[in-house]
Amino acid sequence: MSRYVLKRLGLMVLTLFVIMTLCFFVIRLMPGSPFDDPENSPELETLLEEKHHLNESIPVQYYYFWRDIIADGYWGVSLKIEPNVPVWQVLANRIPVTLVLNLLSIVLAIPFGILAGALSARTAGRLPDRVIGILTVVCISVPSFVFASALQYQLGYKGAFDIIYNSTGTPAEQLRSLILPILALSFWPIATICRYLRGELLDNLNTDYMLLAKAKGLTPVQSLERHAMRNSMVPLVNVIVPLITGVLGGSLVVEKIFAVPGVGGIMTQAVSSRDLWLVMAVLVFYSVINLVTVFLMDIAYGLIDPRIRLAGRKGGAA
Amino acid sequence: MTEQKKNSKDLFVFAEGRRPAGGETPGRVRSFAGNVLARLKKDTAAAAAFWILIVLILMAVFAPDLSPYTYRQQMLAEDYVNMPPRIRGLTWIPLFNGHATLKDRQLSSLSDTAKYPEGCVIRTFNERTVRGVPVADAEIDYYLYKGAGEDVNFWFGTDALGRDIWTRAWRGTRISLLIAFAAVLLDILIGTAWGAVCGWYGGKTDLILMRICEVVRAIPNVVICTLMIMLMGNGVGTMILALACRNWVSTAQLVRAQFLRYREREYVLAAQVMGASDARIMVRHILPNAAGPIISRAVMAVPGVIFTEAFLSYIGLGIAAPEPSLGNLLAEAQGVIGLYPTQTLFPALIVSLMMIAFHLLAGGLRDALDTRTY
Questions:
Q1: Is B235 part of the contact surface with chain A (CB cutoff 8 Å)?
Q2: What pTM was estimated for this model as a whole?
Q3: Assembly ipTM
């Protein structure tokens, strides 16, 4: 198992290296200089570029880039948005907000998705299943920012909830003002989990061991939760990765709608003002979240399914 | 070799007694596509989704040019700013009657016909006194109030710059659909070629190409799209490339799996024996087997692309003003959602309807193409 974990970890680091290299070259080959401002005199521009090593050749800059990160853990400073503040310090207050928003949306979606999926499979073809089916299609299709606008208008402006993020309140108040954004983001994961689980459960309900469970006198609910559910939960790991990336994308907009001071807002600003190293940090943040999720799911799979973790040993494709 | 192939029909004769009696297959033979279409027609939801999409596509193609206004025409001189929607003949629907509510107006000023033309105040409500002055909210005929005649109708209203939202919404739909179709087409082309090479040649080629896929897959969509936009600036072409940039990996994996499944079949061996080239076997003999999954994946990919395009434009990285897209229309309307909710309503309805229809159609197609279910 440890061999498998190490292999996955190595692959993750390698991928991150590729992504960062790609990001570096795109960011440096992007036309225009971050200091290209009519208010800056040409001399100032040259001085600033010299200070940040932007006047060197690209390979030299690439060398500096890795040397700084590896030797000093220095990721550069923000050039435009908060000049001379280290990039991770700029993001330090924003990352927790984004993480809380995204993780809560997914964590809260899991039980509801499972409940809805189980109910739908139990009543397959009958009224509750049909109603859930329609709701699922709507929730999967309608973009999260449409839900966000609708919730903000219907609940926020009618006074039941905060219209935008309450950044000055107590932590409890802040969390309360996140209710609508979390709600808007969680419809899609709920529906996705529900649809997936329903399919898995329907496959499992027709197996012999379910017949045995019935024969030995278990009630339908008992046999569902003791036998069918367990086997259906394993493939659910499959949907978690796309769920997290999907919700992260949606949260960029939802953060904007509810004025949540997360990473999303600063990304657009950084890109449009060419705040090079801040863009790099934001992109690394999104990539790391993705990579860590994939890594954790691989590990979970390895724990669940011995075929996967043993595959590497025989020299087969892992 | 080529000559042999040309005449290959004459080289083969039926073995003794094996010729089908009468030489005709009994019953009606339906093509694969015909079969799929027949199944799709039976699926009410998918059929409805298909017709909704046809309507949406027709609207996207024709509505912007048939409209009396252009997408960037600002009617500031006439002061047609933030007009509520009005459709002649549908004014009995509250949404389309062209009325608006003005809040906190002095009661005395409401009867001033210089400011509020005759008959423009429909009703007053919420009457109260503020600092000794009687005020009220008033529902007014906004078109009459702005001095617009009977022939001026903004079906979806206008925005803060006095631009017709009907025209802009359908033009935005056109751009969203154009980007979605082009991106998915590109995705399918790259993915199919990539997957076919992987699946057919296998070995080292497969290993290296699939490793590249794994790396591309590990980069989040947001990151790839941002990088592409930074490199190429925002615009329709960039969006198409950016959106196809990662999606093709799933197509490649799907096509590869199909090729792995079919490449050992006897008919492939037969084709090889007869001297068919690799390319011919891949395109003529194996690819048709993969057609079903590829088609359903293509349709399935469309809503995802529409969503990504919309959110990128929404946060200001996608299509740039003044060109409308469903994303930036929603972003512009979001700021005034409390005052003018209809500006958000119509683009939101269009994008939602489009996504629902594509999902339903994709689901129906998947079932119709899956021969195991029949």
A1: no
A2: 0.86
A3: 0.86
